[in-house]
Model the fold of this input.
Amino acid sequence: MSALASSERITISDQTVKDAQDTVIPGEASLVLRLADGKEVGLSASIQQTLLDALKLIAQQGSVSIGQLPAELTSTVAADLLSISRPTLMKWVAEGRIGSFKKGSHTRFNRDEVLDLRQRNAAARRSAFEELRSLDEEQEGFLAD
Done:
């Protein structure tokens, strides 16, 4: 098996999307490679999670894009990953919400710190949504009386 060149693409058929949508993955599932002779080769947890995430995106969106981010991110890339504007990102730097460093005259961000903040922001949004939903359910009962 040869590695794909960086410019090559894997085309996902409609059947593959349907198969992904029909695939039920139990919470405690793990992925292994089964060789022709029946021998199984384990995959690292990070590889398994990447493949499961790709399968989930194929099922939800019909496509997936996989790439590696550099360890140092520009302010534009960091802002895009956080779904905010560059001025907001720089405001967050000034507030100490995220760290940055200079490379020459350019501001750079640590990839892992940006991804961690993105994950924390998503968790905070989910929590706020659940709180709002709970409050809405409480108010619904009050208004029905």
In short: The longest strand covers residues 106-110. The mean pLDDT is 88.
